[in-house]
């Protein structure tokens, strides 16, 4: 009959082929049907623009944002070198080998950072110290103490222009509002593709921080 498709022209269903494709996709098949496995997706927190409570807060935030974005690349590069240094020192057995490798990393960081760090303001230097703690889990003071004389001279000479910044400063967005601002700025900048993302070496419950400060 016109308008009706000839059954002989229909392609038979390839049951075995369908089952193979489902199994290849990690989908289990039973007589009752098939089960699609659950997929765990990483939680993504999308940040909206910062809500200012006053003009003064807006001014402070914008200044802090400029300084944080300026300092972040130095914190990332230095912390990467320091983290690698600590990892490799654990694998070097001799004291001579440890000293030699430490000196090599120190020379690299001095060559890369000294002139740039001397151009930082006191506030920028303090932000850098905080970010170094965020990325290594150690205060700059601890790093200097552990790596001894050469590092002590480098950090104290380089940071002389920062006047009296504290090398013992930690990073705690839950207890320090300025640190919360810095963490917010980092995450917004990561989200917008303005800064290179890097996970913190310390635990930060950012949602808890938001509930406290906003």
Topology:
Elements: H1 15-24, E1 28-30, E2 33-35, H2 55-89, H3 95-118, H4 122-136, H5 140-147, H6 149-158, H7 177-191, H8 206-213
Antiparallel strand pairs: 1-2
Helix pairs in contact: 2-3, 2-4, 2-7, 3-6, 5-6, 7-8
Model description:
This protein is 58% helix and 3% strand. The longest helix is centred in the middle third of the chain and has 35 residues, at 55-89. Strand 1 and strand 2 form a beta hairpin. By secondary structure, the chain is mainly α. The radius of gyration is 27 Å and the shape is elongated. It has helices at 15-24, 55-89, 95-118, 122-136, 140-147, 149-158, 177-191, 206-213, and strands at residues 28-30, 33-35. The chain starts with 14 loop residues before the first helix and ends with a helix. It has a two-stranded antiparallel ribbon. The protein is built from 8 helices and 2 strands, in the order H-E-E-H-H-H-H-H-H-H.
Beta-strand content: under 5%
Strand sequence of the main sheet, in spatial order? 1-2
Multimer state:
single chain
| Class by SSE composition | mainly alpha
What's the SSE pattern? HEEHHHHHHH
Radius of gyration: 27 Å
Helix content: 55-70%
Summary of the model, kept short:
The chain is an all-alpha fold and 214 residues long. It has helices at residues 15-24, 55-89, 95-118, 122-136, 140-147, 149-158, 177-191, 206-213; strands spanning 28-30, 33-35. The longest helix is centred in the middle third of the chain and has 35 residues, at 55-89.
């Amino acid at each position: 009959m016109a308008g009706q498709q000839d059954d002989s022209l229909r392609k038979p269903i390839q049951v075995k082929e369908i089952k193979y494709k489902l199994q290849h996709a990690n989908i289990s098949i039973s007589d009752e049907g098939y089960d699609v496995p659950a997929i765990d997706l990483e939680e993504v927190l999308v940040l909206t623009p910062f809500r200012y409570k006053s003009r003064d807060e807006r001014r402070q935030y914008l200044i802090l944002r400029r300084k944080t974005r300026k300092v972040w690349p130095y914190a990332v590069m230095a912390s990467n070198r320091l983290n690698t240094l600590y990892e490799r020192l654990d694998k070097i057995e001799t004291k001579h080998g440890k000293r030699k490798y430490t000196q090599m990393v120190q020379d690299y960081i001095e060559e890369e950072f000294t002139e740039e760090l001397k151009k930082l303001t006191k506030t920028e230097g303090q932000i850098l110290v905080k970010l170094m703690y965020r990325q290594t889990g150690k205060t700059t003071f601890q790093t200097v103490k552990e790596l001894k004389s050469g590092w002590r001279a480098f950090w104290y000479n380089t940071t002389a222009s920062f006047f009296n910044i504290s090398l013992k400063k930690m990073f705690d967005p839950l207890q320090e509002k300025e640190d919360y601002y810095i963490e917010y700025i980092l995450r917004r900048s990561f989200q917008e593709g303005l800064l290179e993302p890097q996970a913190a070496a310390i635990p930060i419950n950012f949602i808890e921080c938001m509930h406290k400060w906003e």
